[in-house]
Amino acid sequence: MNRFTKLMAGTTIGLTIAFGGLPAAMAETPADMLVIANRIDDITTLDPAESFEFAGSDVIRNVYAKLVNLDPLDLKAGYKPDLAESWEVSEDGKTITFTMREGVKFQSGNPVTAADAEFSLRRAVILKKTPSFILTQFGFTPENIEQTIKADGNKLSITTDRKYATSFVLNCLTATIGGIVDMKTVMANEADGDMGNLWLKTNSAGAGAYSVVNWKPNESVTLKANEDFYLGAPAMKRVIVRHVQESATQRLLLEKGDIDIARNLNPEDIAGASKAEGIVIDNDLRGRLMYTAVNQKHPELSKPKVRLAMRYLVDYEGMKNSFLKGQYAIHQAFLPQTYLGALEEKPFSLDIEKAKALLKEAGAGEFEIEVGVREAQERIEISQSLQNTFAQVGIKLNITVGTAKQILTRYRARELDMYMGAWGPDYPDPQTNAGTFAYNPDNSDEVKATGLLAYRNAWDPGDMNQAVEAAVIEPDREKRAQMYMDMQRKHQMESPFTVMFQKIEQTARDEDVKNFDIGGAITAAAYWKVTK
Length: 532
Known about the structure:
This protein is an alpha+beta fold and about 525 residues long. It has 19 helices and 17 strands. The strands form three sheets. Strands 1, 8, 9, 10, 11, 12, 13, 14, 15, 16 and 17 form an eleven-stranded mixed sheet that branches. Strands 4-5-7-6 form a four-stranded antiparallel sheet. The protein has a two-stranded antiparallel ribbon with strand order 2-3. A hairpin with a 5-residue loop joins strand 4 and strand 5. Helix 9 packs parallel to helix 10 (about 265-275). It starts with a helix and ends in a 22-residue tail after the last strand.
């Protein structure tokens, strides 16, 4: 019995009188439909070879199966077989050969084959979209993929440029870009040699639990269940994710019964919703980090002591204890807690006088910069807090608020003086963040499309590039962890990044919704095991 049925049971007499003998209808979502309120304005594409934002990852996790995947009810176990039922590693450690699972079909009805897996991984490398570095870091290029990514019958082999830890390679294949697409369907919708990219921006061709019915940017995403899903047809036949920007609106919709889950409630609304009958609050430590970064093309921001001064201009405790209460933990290194090599040290606190001294040593006078931030409440409030503390040392911070697409487009083009936003890991291995916060082997403007945050801020990490490359091939787990901790200590003092917080996601849901998993610190949300 959900909270609306309980409410009806307790108020039948009053409702009958009020509505002339007819019981009033209470809002309630259908038993086989999951309705979620979430901010999804960051979705720019639903193509797994291109998608690189939080909300898009949620969609793709539920639409596309992968060679290996993460079980939403057993995340601690790490990667497990998915479309590949098993794999073998060559003696030299460079080639992994996957044996494909028999009898699995795409949502189109086409069988899933090794040729589809070959096509999908090759396609991701050829298209060179933002997340392509997750694969190209293994030495795959458009020129060598015919030799390095090969299907043979029901087997697919991938050969990397050198020996890596097998777990690192497989962890990367759990990323969004590892989604296997239906080659026949995708190529039937090819336009001007784009390998179906334009079509897949708004359509789907996967073998996952759901397919895309409709995506209306800044409005909603609708998914329908794949009745032939090889793990069993999902109980939720439809999933609708509604874009609801305001926390108060999400809470109202949840309390009325118009939605089942609210994912963006602020601390005040979490406190209010927790008192409502039939609503449960879940707290999950996520991998998402809130950070600022400054463009190294800026004459003042490129000074090392100016960058360091900015670490002391953040009111970490004040924000954590006020508008971020319960939803963020102070964290000051690029690896989230729960990851191998995560650093617990927090060397910075708000210290205006120390910041002034560092700015003076840098020879920096008063200056003015622009910070780009997407139109999300907590991010705007963080920016306003920074605006206040920056002003105390003579830095005028002009806040530009825009949609995620608007701000990210400028950030990726290295146009912003400063960016204030969030970053989430792409796969459950420390390389996922080391390889973007501390790695940028080519800092030239001509590179253009890249997912490397160091590049977006025009920062050359110098010998940190070599440190990242060394850590990713280190076979000894303890030694590898120490390498990442050393790297983060150096990064804390020298980089243009100020990591401030790690996300604690508080999800409010109807108590009847079971098995909804948001992915912990390592992956995206999963819908296919949800029941009501």
